[in-house]
Design a protein that fits this description.
Elements (H helix, E strand, L loop, with lengths): L78 H5 L79 H28 L27 H8 L3 E8 L2 E11 L5 E4 L1 H10 L3 E4 L5 E10 L4 E6 L9 E2 L10 E6 L7 E16 L8 E8 L11 E3 L4 E9 L15 E5 H14 L3 E4 L2 E3 L10 E6 L4 H4 L7 E5 L2 E2 L3 H9 L6 E8 L2 E8 L1 E4 L1
Parallel strand pairs: 7-12
Antiparallel strand pairs: 1-2, 1-4, 2-3, 3-6, 4-5, 5-6, 8-9, 8-11, 9-10, 10-13, 11-12, 12-13, 14-21, 15-16, 16-17, 17-18, 17-19, 19-20
Length: 522
């Protein structure tokens, strides 16, 4: 039966050559397009062809035939043919994959059939609707296709109530720690230049004596100590260079020890201070700290790390008559050396200041080595080349100027007191001295046998110890006390916080009291 021929329809009678396929025989005919049918716009009446040949039983779709060939796909099948099998065999194909009205094409024995997996007959998740053709999507009402999995769903959880107090406490702790750290940094930045947290133990001092203890040469001592002795020129009452004095190098960090009265005016007015070393080099210096009570000051010299430090000795081993050498710049004459002997030990000496707290009370080493104005702050040295005191004061004959010069009586601050005060200054830039909280009579009374108390301040160590007005203190730790100056000197040889034992006479009866010393900066 004849019918109209369409270009896209193939009949079994037509032999249209297909593109060569690798591994396939080129004479094999091309298979018809899979799944093609007339559309509604182009209705065509196609006469059915001859009935398909009977297929042997027992073969499933996609199973190989007896010759081992795949009956579901052949080398002539196009990708469209194979894609049409996903939803099951197309309506115009047999269950065995052969086109209707066509006989199975024989396969050559030398052609290898590619193994294929059977296509599923239908989507297991699809649901057949009435009127829905196999392999066609459904757009009608009813259950929608299974939604695509989009991953786990995040469920918003409510924050527990305990979290907020914990956060607040953490913020408070962080704030406190931050404040403490900021305070520590501020203290560090505001610390006085030249100080050291470990005091005198934190600086590099000279520990060994430069000479043997039995050295008898003053010249050898002079050669050893002159490089460690400096001259100091400071402002006085607004006049640059108005005050002159001496000092010695303490350590390799450039600290210099001198008397407070040499640099007091410059320190108060922030005036210039110049240190002149043994080679005549002038170096600028600043005050690290000072004590008017002990008449001591510590300077920090710029570039003083190259100066040679002096060795520190001990005054407590001195004996009256031991030879000593004084170094300094008396009357502005730098690098001056004078020698003498120890004239006395534990001599109570005071230098008057503008107030009671400014007065310096010294338990001094007395010497007949020539000491003149300008020697102040210079070292007093033993024959081993060790510093045993700091020259501080001289006795005068009452001249109009108050500085009549050497008359053979000079006084030096014991090195033990120097160590204590310098250590405090290096640590904090300040020094403390001990007090008992009572006023004593310091005027000369020939018949006095001790220090008479004139007033006891409330809530002081003296009041807590039971001391009263008119009590007479005759001894401190078994050291006799002759007057008020001797009592002050005896107390100031101790440290704040120490407990001392005092012998007290009241109404003709003697008693012993324990007094814990308080401290005061000065």
């Amino acid at each position: 039966m004849s019918h109209e021929h369409r270009p896209d329809e193939q009949t079994p009678d037509e032999q249209v050559p297909d593109q060569p396929v690798a591994g396939a025989h080129q004479e094999e005919p091309t298979q018809p397009l899979a799944g093609w049918r007339p559309t509604a716009a182009e209705p065509e009446a196609v006469e059915p062809g001859p009935a398909p040949a009977a297929q042997p039983e027992g073969r499933a779709y996609g199973a190989p035939d007896d010759a081992g060939h795949d009956a579901g796909a052949g080398p002539g099948d196009t990708p469209s043919d194979q894609a049409g099998m996903l939803g099951g065999p197309p309506p115009h194909r047999t269950p065995f994959g052969e086109p209707q009205g066509a006989s199975p094409q024989p396969r050559l024995d030398h052609e290898a059939a590619a193994p294929t997996l059977p296509y599923p007959t239908q989507d297991p998740y699809a649901q057949q609707r009435p009127g829905q053709q196999p392999g066609q999507p459904w757009f009608g009402p009813g259950p929608q296709p299974r939604p695509t999995y989009a991953g786990p769903v995040t469920v918003a959880r409510r924050i527990p109530l305990w979290v907020w107090p914990a956060v607040a406490c953490l913020a408070l702790v962080v704030g406190i720690l931050g404040g403490l750290a900021g305070g520590a940094i501020q203290d560090e930045l505001s610390a006085r230049p030249g100080t050291n947290d470990n005091g005198i133990n934190g600086v590099r001092t000279q520990t060994a004596a430069p000479l043997e203890a039995d050295n008898g040469s003053v010249a050898a001592v002079a050669q050893a100590l002159l490089p460690s002795t400096v001259q100091i020129v400071a402002e006085l009452d607004g006049r640059e260079g108005g005050a002159t004095g001496s000092g010695f190098v303490l350590d390799r960090e450039g600290h210099v020890v001198t008397n407070n009265h040499v640099v007091a005016s410059a320190a108060e007015d922030d005036g210039p201070i110049v240190v002149i070393d043994h080679q005549g080099q002038r170096l600028e210096a600043t005050v690290v700290g000072r004590s008017s009570v002990y008449d001591l000051a510590v300077l920090s010299v710029e570039g003083g790390g190259k100066l040679e430090p002096a060795a520190l000795g001990a005054s407590q081993v001195l004996r009256v008559g031991d030879p000593v050498i004084a170094f300094g710049a008396p009357l502005g004459l730098s690098q001056t050396v004078t020698s003498g002997i120890v004239s006395a030990l534990n001599r109570p000496v005071t230098t008057s200041g503008q107030s009671e707290d400014d007065s310096s009370y010294i338990n001094a080493v007395q010497t007949d080595a020539a000491i003149n104005p300008g020697n102040s702050g210079g070292p007093l040295v033993n024959l081993a080349g060790e510093v045993v005191g700091v020259n501080s004061a001289i006795a005068t004959n009452g001249g109009a100027s108050g500085e009549a010069g050497n008359i053979g009586v000079g006084f030096a601050i014991p090195i033990e007191q120097v160590r204590t005060t310098v250590d405090q200054i290096l640590r904090t830039g300040k020094a403390e001295y001990p007090v008992i909280g009572a006023q004593v009579r310091t005027g000369g009374e020939p018949d006095s046998e001790g220090a008479t108390i004139t007033e006891v301040m409330p809530d002081t160590p003296a009041e807590r110890a039971g001391l009263e007005k008119d009590d007479v203190i005759t001894a401190v730790d078994d050291q006799p006390v002759s007057d008020g100056i001797a009592l002050i000197v005896a107390i100031r040889t101790h440290l704040p916080g120490d407990t001392v034992e005092m012998s007290v006479v009241r109404g003709g009866e003697e008693r012993v009291v324990q007094v814990e010393l308080d401290g005061k900066v000065g």
